[in-house]
Write a structure and sequence with these properties.
binds iron/sulfur cluster, 13 helices, binds pyridoxal-5'-phosphate
Length: 338
């Protein structure tokens, strides 16, 4: 084969997810250029970026409408000057998670379930994130600390479900996940492994055949909870990868955060539920945003949220209506808002 033919084949190869992950957009100037936006209309906040840098995958950017500062996907990632506002009641650690951290990288707040903050980073930085102030550095388990977390789980046979969260657990490699699952498989009382990830939405190529195989063929009931806030996030690319998951073997759910100007509208939420269902994904939770410092401009009041829920309930079958919840420190479960 000639060199040209070879390189043609090479460029036709779909990019590996690791390559996409190492080629994120982190410079606001590049983002506005790609999206043909006028930076003068909405300057990026340096203070916000210093605290929580701009970070977004190219597949997610490809789903943003060029030239539109109001795009609901763009609003989730743009470090705006609104983040600089200091608002009473919005604090760094509203969930007091630092209190429920028995070993590094493990949170045990709810009956029968532990949450592993398995991987400290994400492929994207969502501006509303309640973990934006989280001290990941001291919560990045080394192999040895993983062993501590595994021992903790093995020692408590009341733990039936292990939740891999983050950061984003799917930022870990297939090999690391395979290792972790095989360790968990040896703990007899663990029946369910749940993965909470935004990766299938922001970097769908992450759903590799190896990963699908891991989830579909482990001894666990595997649950994959997507984090999708708007139907527009479900691009043709996302659809093509998600539809490959064998939903007889893996339960697909979605959780969203209710965000002002992004999805605080019953038509948008209805469309999200219907779009998810077309991919065998059921809505699970709709979270009221946590009162995290720098995110007040995303906040939706309980009153407004309840009005939206009523509209949703009047338009959708019950199974397509997510549960409206809020996380409150010290509670035995997420709190239903009704
Ligand atoms: C949200 C959360 C869970 C899972 O709660 P579910 O209601 O089962 O989805 C478990 N542990 C922690 C620490 C959590 O924050
Ligand atoms: S992917 Fe999840 S954990 Fe990561 S920044 Fe977004 S909301 Fe936060």
């Amino acid at each position: 084969m000639t060199q040209t033919a070879l390189s043609l084949i090479h460029t036709d190869q779909p990019k590996k997810w690791q390559e996409i992950l190492s080629d994120l957009i982190t410079d606001p100037k590049e983002l506005v250029q790609v999206l043909q936006l006028d930076l003068a209309l909405k300057p990026a906040s340096l203070a916000a970026m210093e605290q929580f840098p701009l970070k977004v995958t190219r597949p997610f950017v490809a789903a943003i409408e060029p030239g539109n500062w109001q795009d609901p996907l763009l609003l989730q990632i743009w470090p705006s000057q609104a983040e600089e506002a200091v608002i009473t009641g919005f604090v760094a650690d509203p969930l007091l998670e630092s209190d429920a951290n028995p070993v590094p990288g493990l949170l045990h707040k709810y009956h029968g379930r532990v949450l592993l903050t398995a991987v400290p980073h994400c492929a994207i930085h969502c501006r509303y994130c309640f973990r934006r102030h989280f001290d990941y550095a001291s919560n990045t388990p080394s192999r040895q600390q993983w062993q501590q977390a595994l021992d903790y789980i093995a020692d408590d046979n009341g733990i039936e479900e292990v939740i891999l969260s983050g950061g984003d657990p799917l930022a870990a490699s297939d090999r690391q996940l395979a290792w972790l699952l095989s360790q968990l498989e040896q703990i007899q009382h663990v029946a369910t492994v749940r993965i909470h990830s935004r990766m299938p939405i922001v970097l769908p190529q992450r759903l590799t055949p190896v990963l699908r195989d891991l989830l579909e063929n482990s001894r666990f009931r595997c649950v994959l909870v997507l984090h999708c806030n708007h139907a527009r996030e479900i691009s043709a690319l996302v659809r093509s990868f998600l539809s490959k998951i064998d939903t007889n073997a893996v339960t697909l759910l979605n959780q969203s955060v209710l965000l002002a100007d992004i999805n605080d509208n019953s038509k948008i939420l209805e469309e999200l539920s219907r779009t998810l269902f077309s991919l065998n994904v059921l809505p699970y939770y709709l979270h009221l945003p946590d009162k995290v410092a720098g995110t007040a401009h995303f906040y939706v009041s309980r009153k407004e949220a309840l009005k939206l829920m009523e509209e949703l309930e009047n338009r959708l079958p019950g199974y397509l209506v997510p549960k409206l919840v809020v996380e409150e420190p010290g509670k035995a479960a997420k709190t239903r808002v009704r």
